[in-house]
Amino acid sequence: MPPFKKNISRRKFIDLGVQGSTAIGLSLPIIATTGCNSQNIKTTHGACYHDCPDTCSWTATAVDNKITEFRASQDNPYTNGKLCAKMNNFPNDVTFHPDRILTPLKRVGKKGSGEFEPISWKQAMNEVAVRLKKTLAKEGGEAVLPYSYAGTEGLVQRNSISGRFFAHIGASKLERTICGNAAVAGVMTTNGQTTGVLPEDIIHSRYIILWGTNPVTSNQHLWPLIQQAREDGAKLVVIDPYQSATAVEADWHIQPTPGTDTALALAMINVIIAEDLQDQDYVDQYTVGIKELKKHVEQYDIEAVSKITGLKEETIQTLAREYASASPALIRVLIGMEHQLNGGSAFSAVAMLPSLTGAWRHFGGGLMHMTYELFGQALNWERLELEKTIANQDIRSISMIQIGRALNDSSLSPAINALFVYNSNPAVIAPNQNLVVKGLEREDLMTVVLDHFITDTARYADYVFPATSQLEHWDLLTSWGQTYLNINEPTIPPVGEAKPNTEFFRLLANEMSFTEDYLYESDLSILKKTLETDHEYLNGVTFDTLRKNGWVKLNIPDQWMPHAKGNFKTSSGKCEFYNASNEPPIPEYRPKAYSREELSTFPLKLLTIKSTKNFLNSSHANVKELMDKEGQPVLDIHPEDAKLREIVDGAEVKAYNKNGEVLLTAKVRSKVNQGVVSMPQGYWSSLVKGGSTANALTSDLLTDKGRGGALQEARVEVTLLT
Ligand SMILES: Nc1nc2c(c(=O)[nH]1)N[C@H]1C(S)=C(S)[C@@H](COP(=O)(O)OP(=O)(O)OC[C@H]3O[C@@H](n4cnc5c(=O)[nH]c(N)nc54)[C@H](O)[C@@H]3O)O[C@H]1N2
Ligand SMILES: Nc1nc2c(c(=O)[nH]1)N[C@H]1C(S)=C(S)[C@@H](COP(=O)(O)OP(=O)(O)OC[C@H]3O[C@@H](n4cnc5c(=O)[nH]c(N)nc54)[C@H](O)[C@@H]3O)O[C@H]1N2
Ligand code: SF4
Ligand SMILES: [Mo]
């Protein structure tokens, strides 16, 4: 990670406003309005809004509403004084970026052309409301669809007033399952909860398997803790079909065929049981179904699984033996491998391993996954999610993964007629991009987008509204990857005519003449009410204390070992190796069946992953400096596959399948096995050659559990571009 200190003189877009502003530091009180030379000086605590497990804390200082200092929290131990390359220059890269939208915009050109003209908030709101009223009267609420995700993780701006607004009008519900649902559903099936070993306790582990996760890129503040464990003797194993930035650093990189992890985990279980390496006492006391599991894994012997995974038999055997013998042994999973058709089952199977070996009994041993459940217990969630009490349970749901289908489905009744996109960029991040774009091109669809920029999605909007950035609004930030709660206080007033998401929906409610109070609750009230809880994890934290300190670590008991003595949150109270009510009762490796023709026409398995260190999904992919650092998107192809196609390193190639085609530069190297190719996700179609990006090739199939996105279930052919 780069140093946190910024050279302020490099700040191109920020007018410092004062001489010597570098002297303005964090010794100031949190808010100091009025100061020397009648300048307004304000320093606030905030936190990163991104959908990133790290949720870093920061402080920002403004002088006369110009940001003069922006830096990582120096005292939050998890942030550890550093943001990341994506966020170091956030005030310039987002808040004051010259391309930032500063007024509402109305489309004047063809959908997709990106041609807009400014329009006043009043006029734009009025036009949207007139159209919305018409839709509600004619087609009903279900013809309206919100499309939002975790563009901001802040609880207030994410989906508070918007959630209530859409529940109130009876809009179609959006199934927000593109990230984490399959992983969590898988772990829940086995353990009944997803929170296992806490991130900071990884330093006690002595054998660490990073299974389908890439912390050097995607979870950067966990990485130093992993390094600390290694300095103290831990071995680091990475299981990943791609030679990720983390795999390069590992002691051992195991590179299975994508989507075969269920088989690999079951084969490890097979070896452990066959060689009597299990902790029988733990198994007897705290698990159910060992008999059935033992029988089930017979078919997953190392010989069979070697063929499935492409791994050598001894690799599987050694991995199982080492894992079962080391202590404390930790398996870290996150999201990566969930985006496979069989992904949920993979998480269920992997989650069994620590119970089989009794790893949970040792501090630093077990499974490490999410942490959000802790915040779910600590905060007043019922109050935050008020929309759940407003929503009509009978309203239909639409999968965000299948937005392309939904927008194009002529049998859908009612058809989606009005689409509100905020905190997301579906034209880039949703699978089957060309189908999504075809839907967005529909002339009869009213699309409204709230964002900071004219994203690939906003290009298709009828109206674009300028959203505030994290320096301009209040919020409260929980984390799914660590245990610190953050407040985010605005440092400056909204730039241009930007407004928080909440304010957009309050204004729209007013324009629609709705009278319910819950549609008009203020941001600060939502934030304060969410903190109204006497849960021990918050230990008396109030709005005022949080505002003063910026962050607080949840008051979780020391030596947190959730399953040292069982305590699984399953219906049996035990770790469930077998559960007759699941389908199947024990996870099975069930690959997608392809016809011989499909296999020969599209012989290469495609990975579209977050290998982009400088983007956060599609965020920041429009920032020139970051784009330059990241370079144009490349296709990783194995030397043998390249040779077959006469592709040399650096050649311009086309990857294609029935859904679309993407133009890239070939990188001929062994980052992937033969038969697999990989390209990064996140690039904007409007900014790369060929005009489409990774998701033009992905499938909108759902995963086996959790209705997640089987984004990696894609096959392609690659040819030289002539
Ligand atoms: N720099 C950066 N950081 C990010 C993000 C970003 O876009 N850029 N995105 C954020 C978000 S939204 C999320 S969800 C997290 C995700 O964090 P991670 O779960 O760590 O991230 P991914 O990169 O999705 O996947 C990790 C690895 O899984 C591998 N993988 C893919 N398929 C399989 C498989 O079948 N089996 C196995 N064993 N491995 C597989 C990929 O090759 C990849 O290297 O990262 C967050 N952090
Ligand atoms: N092929 C492929 N596709 C993937 C993935 C993959 O690994 N491969 N990963 C998937 C995963 S794990 C995820 S989480 C999704 C992520 O998908 P998205 O959540 O859509 O992520 P972003 O691309 O970062 O888009 C967030 C948008 O929110 C905007 N935003 C930020 N703050 C605010 C705000 O306060 N108000 C408003 N109105 N807008 C704001 C940003 O400017 C940005 O345009 O992508 C998924 N898609
Ligand atoms: S994107 Fe992640 S690592 Fe970077 S500042 Fe935000 S929370 Fe921290
Ligand atoms: Mo994600």
Spatial separation of the terminal alpha carbons: 39 Å
Which percent band covers the strand fraction? 15-25%
What is the top-level CATH class of the largest domain?
A: Alpha Beta
Total number of strands: 28
What best-fitting shape do the alpha-carbon axes yield?
globular
Which oligomeric state applies?
A: single chain
Small molecules (ligands, ions, cofactors) in the structure:
ligand MGD, iron/sulfur cluster, molybdenum atom
- Looking at CATH, which topology of the largest domain would you report? Rossmann fold
Number of helices: 26
What is the helix fraction of residues, given as a range? 25-40%
Question: Could you give a short account of the major beta sheet?
Answer: 6 strands, mixed
**Poorly predicted residue ranges:** 1-36
Mean pLDDT: 94
Rg over C-alpha atoms, rounded to the nearest angstrom: 25 Å
Count of structural domains: 3
Structural class: alpha/beta
CATH architectural type of the largest domain: 3-Layer(aba) Sandwich
Strand order of the largest sheet: 6-5-18-17-16-7
Protein model, in words:
With 722 residues, the chain is α/β, with parallel strands linked by helices. It has 3 domains: 105-179 and 375-469 and 495-539, Rossmann fold (3-Layer(aba) Sandwich); 181-372 and 560-576, 3-Layer(aba) Sandwich (Dimethylsulfoxide Reductase, domain 2); 596-720, Barwin-like endoglucanases (Beta Barrel). The protein has a 6-stranded mixed β-sheet with strand order 6-5-18-17-16-7, with helices on one face. It has a 6-stranded mixed β-barrel with strand order 23-27-24-26-25-28. The chain has a 5-stranded parallel β-sheet with strand order 11-10-9-13-14. Helix 14 (343-357) links the parallel strand 13 and strand 14 (366-368). The radius of gyration is 25 Å and the shape is globular. Residues 1-36 have low confidence and may be disordered. The structure holds ligand MGD (2 copies), iron/sulfur cluster (SF4) and molybdenum atom. One ligand MGD binds at residues 49, 51, 149-152, 157, 178-179, 335, 339, 422-425, 428-429, 450-452, 455, 467, 501, 608-610, 616-619, 681, 694-695, 698, 711. The site of one ligand MGD has 35 residues, from helix 19, strand 17 and strand 23.
